[in-house]
Amino acid sequence: MDLNIIIGGPQGGGVETAGMLLIRATATAGLQVFGVREYHSNIKGKHSYFHIRTSNKPINSIKHPADILGGLDPETLATHFSELRKGGVVVYDEAIESKSLTRSPSIDPAKAKRLRSALTEKGIKDTVEGLREYLKGEGVSVYAIPFSKIISNVLKGTNIQIERTMNTAITSAILSILGMKKDIVYDAISSLFAGKAGIIEVNRKVADAVYEELSTAEKFQVESAKGEDDKKGHEEVGKRLLLAGNDAVAIGKILGGLRFQTYYPITPAADESLVIEEIAKIFDNEGRIIGSPIVVQTEDEISAVGMAIGGVLTGVRSATSTSGPGFSLMVEGLGWAGINEVPLVITYYQRGGPSTGLPTRHSQSDLLFSIFAGHGEFARIVIASGDHREAMEDAVKCFNYAEIFQVPVIHLLDKGLANSVTTVPVPSIDIPIVRGKIVDGGEEYKRFKLTEDRISPRAFLGRTIQWYTGDEHNEYGNICEDPVVREEMYRKRMEKRRMILEELPDWDKARFYGPEKYDDLLLTWGTTKGAVVDALPELNATGERVSVLQVRLMEPFPADYVSEFIAGSRRVVSIEANYTGQLAWLIERYCKINVDGKVLKYNGRTISEDEVLNGYRRIKEGETSVVLTGGE
Amino acid sequence: MAAEWSSDVWPDWCPGCGNFGILSALKLALSELRINKREFVIVSGIGCSGKIAHFVRTNGVHTLHGRAIPFASGIKVANPELKVVVHGGDGDLLGIGMGHFIALGRRNIDILVVIHNNGVYGLTKGQASPTLGKGVKTKGLAFPNITEPVNPILLGMMSGYTFLARGYAYSVEHLKDLLKAGLNHKGAGVLEVIQPCPTWNNVTTTEWVSNNTFYLKDWKPLVEKKEDLAQKMKEVLSMEYGDKRALGIILEDNTREVYQERVTKLNEIYDKYPPSKQKIESNGRILPISFEKTFEKYLI
Q1: Residues of chain A numbered 234-293 and touching chain B (CB < 8 Å)
Q2: What is the CATH number of the domain that holds B193?
């Protein structure tokens, strides 16, 4: 079973809830789920949607065509109907049938024009009704259900608006059509609205009425979405966490000992800080409080990075979290952390740039920026996680590596991860915390003492007297411009790059997926890994042997390790969400080879599994650079 | 006794620089207050004044231009047991770093900000700083300054600082007393120090200072009740708009909670176990965290 559902509507109109209900319901039914959230930089009104994929095998991407489309408004139907497969399902409120598909005031004019010309081309009248006729001809099952009427019956005597529960109604309809038991919908409602008894009751009544309405309707044929398969799936998957990428990182940071986080509000990073702030207290099994992180919302990102550095100097595992524009402002602070060998962690969620760019959309275009940001030269670690589980585990490792090597660490993520929702197994608590060389200091302490292994024992502020400066400095941390000291200190810092490459386990440098022997090697990074790895079975069904190398350590670049994999391949293809092929550039630069093909995407939407298949096919057919254009 | 507060680093300021007076006053104040050197942190910005962090035998964190306040805030919030003072120039704290200056007042974190106010950017050859008067032409300027100056005391007052004082760099005893008062005050403080720059500011000279300042006498800076604050602020405002700059403690506002108290109200753990006092590992492994109790809403 592999099912793709799109549910959309105006931003602020309940799309988030609709998507989360579907995700919760499928997850509690024991299925795997991956939901991608697309939205404008807007609070209310503009088109937004969730693309939710659910399957009984592990997934970390979405796939086209979609099986089911649920529309809270006509624009959703017009935007996504072409993504449906033949035999798919559309669900919407009968009351919108007479409305235009493309003439809502909030629709983007460029998009309206594009949609109208597509409608004209297909001979579709610009109304929901017109689309219904067309879809029927295409073999799509259309469920135009009188939701408004059903809901107004349920809400009689209350002052709740119909729109407030339309999301529950459409979601219930989709789950009913899928043959899911009503209990699962109940559970999803209860957990989503936990603590709000009145809201739970109303939404359950809406679900009841919709299930009643559809009791005799034709059910969509998905063999494993019901009955025995549910139970089987549940046993296999065990206890899981259902979370967005922001949540995964927040939890990982708390496990890793984060006790001080600073941030300035920015999409798509800010949710992570809110999660940490809300968790507030860390409990052990006996219910004792064993920790409590402090979060400070600063006046800007310059302050956020400065405060986080201040926290680190006191010995506290401290971090800041941001996106491209914020990171641009943090760069001077990053350099200070570099020259002062501060184990600072910066969590960096990429979004579409340059400048404000696409604030709420996906991008992997800041890879080179994160590696090279800052004037002068200094050692840093850049680790890019490929999925939620990695992001959670890496959040812990970032602190460990920062403290072992006494370098700033950038945990490089992206919007695709930040806002996508999936499940991960509850991690074992047998995770190492390694704090590196820590001392009390004593008299004559030298913070930057030259040692054989380049790492100076670190004392926290408060334990002994010490100095730090953004100027070049001597072993005490006092300003020094002597050319010999300059060289020694410069080397001390830079040679950590070699140490990092020597000491990091291969597992953290890159991960290999697919057959041991392969013809073609697909190189990828970040959350694009999800789609590429998910595509592996189909890629290997085409007759070629195809494997994937997901590069994780971006700086210092593990050229030797990556080269070992390239050596065994006939063709090397990079797949990433940017224009220039930034991973491909790093590989060409460090591994001294030519990347044969690049599959790229820069329209602000994540790469889906089907796009990987398409992109690879086109490279095989002789194209050297393929630009993917999917998603709305 | 103040000598034990000298570091081994030679202060490389110009002969006659006002920074020497500030350094002497600081060492005297620290000595008289019997401050624990390990638990005191000087956080400084960039410019001549920023180097002071290296010249005192205590923790010195010499940060970035304009950013001493964020670094200091992070240090103090993560470890409230440390005593933290910020030293920076007028260009640093009121030009490039003004946003942070205002934010610290709003938070009322227990940090004293000492502004070395010489009216110029000395280390880059005397450009106009945010406190240089309009129409003034110091020797590094091509033309008279066409920008209005900012008054650090008034800006500090409107930002929520709860201690405001002004001293003069060459009046070391008086300045020492102001430093002691500022360091003893609980909350965010501003101590503006008028500081001649013998190399680049040929206008704010010792003679100018003696003609344009006066020492406060019979002035009552203390405000204990919220309802008295507005009246005191009005008095400060009219004094600051007078012909001469007042030297002394201008305002001590004990009506506002300090940041530590504000955080503790939201999270009682903070008072006893701030981040610096929390254990984060158990035998080299993460703490025995309960997922059910800590991350309940994510579990399915």
Answers
A1: 239-243, 247, 251, 254-257, 259-260, 262, 279-285, 287, 289-293
A2: 3.40.50.970
